[in-house]
Design brief:
304 residues, mainly beta, Neuraminidase, 5-stranded antiparallel β-sheet, 4-stranded antiparallel β-sheet, 31 strands, 0% helix
Length: 304
């Protein structure tokens, strides 16, 4: 692994751009930050709260899931979120103009229910986006979360699958017929068969949100955000054990790539051939890169 940059404040949401730069959010600092190929950092915008997942939309802007912020503690393995901050004012979906850094709030509710902790998002080829609302937690309990679908023009945001337990990473299969969602606390990977944009074809297995359980971790760990490779494998940033867990579309674990931080938070693919993985290490505040054995899946409005 190569360290691209250090000194980030709990980085997440990497987006590898064509010029070799990587956008990351810094959740604790409340910024969207550009990491240049030489490791320099430039703050693009300061949305505040807790910017989490990020993706480029059909208009070239960066769309951000903002969880509203955490309270934090320093541990022997670095920063760690521990609960709801005193200044928490709700979660939201934001649109950030990369040229000027202006921040626009698109949504703070889905179907009239307030967003609690939007976490990660992915655009489909139609220009809408799926996102997870992980809820919020403190020492006294945790909210249930949901899978939501929204349009990028701010006109529609719905809860499509609920309830879920801390839904986090989200991604689409290469043919966009299956939506994958990783739950943090359960370390489960769910598959949602899609009938049309924003519509889940519910499974009859009894899961209340309508998904199929594709994989459940046999050891104690937690799943964070994810990316899909060109073979359709689901590459999940994995907490506690610290690394990237690779699951096939059939639900079999293919690999585990160890990383030097138990708070490995996210992965994306970049480079000319999409064979470079960029991984955010939240606790120690680093962005690292490594060669990946398969190209990443091209993302709508970024690589296509």
């Amino acid at each position: 692994m190569k360290v691209v940059t250090r000194g980030l404040r709990f980085p997440e949401g990497p987006v590898a751009l064509a010029d070799g730069s990587v956008l990351v959010v810094e959740i604790e600092r409340g910024t969207l930050t550009m990491v240049h190929p030489d490791g320099r950092q430039t703050i693009v915008a300061r949305p505040g709260g807790g910017p989490n997942g990020a993706a480029i939309g059909p208009d070239g802007a960066c769309y951000v899931c903002n969880n509203g912020g955490f309270s934090w503690t320093n541990t022997d393995v670095g920063l760690r979120p521990v609960g709801i901050p005193d200044d928490y004012a709700g979660g939201r979906i934001e649109r950030i103009d990369l040229a000027g850094g202006t921040v626009e709030r698109l949504y703070d509710n889905a179907d009239g229910r307030p967003l609690r902790g939007p976490n990660d998002l992915v655009f489909d080829r139609h220009g809408g986006f799926w996102f997870t609302d992980a809820g919020k937690f403190d020492n006294n309990g945790r909210d249930f979360g949901a899978v939501c679908y929204a349009l990028s023009d701010g006109s529609r945001c719905i809860r499509a699958g609920a309830p879920m337990i801390s839904p986090n990473g989200i991604g689409l299969s290469p043919d966009e017929t299956v939506l994958y969602v990783a739950e943090t606390m359960t370390a489960r990977l769910w598959a949602f068969d899609l009938a049309s944009p924003g519509v889940i074809r519910r499974s009859d297995n009894g899961a209340p949100h309508g998904g199929r359980m594709l994989f459940a971790s046999p050891v104690y760990q937690a799943f964070d955000s994810l990316a899909i490779d060109s073979d359709g494998n689901i590459c999940i940033a994995t907490l506690v054990t610290g690394g990237i867990t690779v699951i096939s579309p059939a639900g079999r674990q293919l690999d585990f790539v160890k990383c030097p931080d138990p708070q490995t938070t996210n992965i994306c693919f970049g480079g000319a051939d999409l064979c470079t993985a960029f991984v955010t290490l939240g606790g120690i505040g680093e962005l690292v890169s490594l060669s990946w054995p398969r190209p990443g899946l091209p993302l709508n409005f970024l690589n296509r």
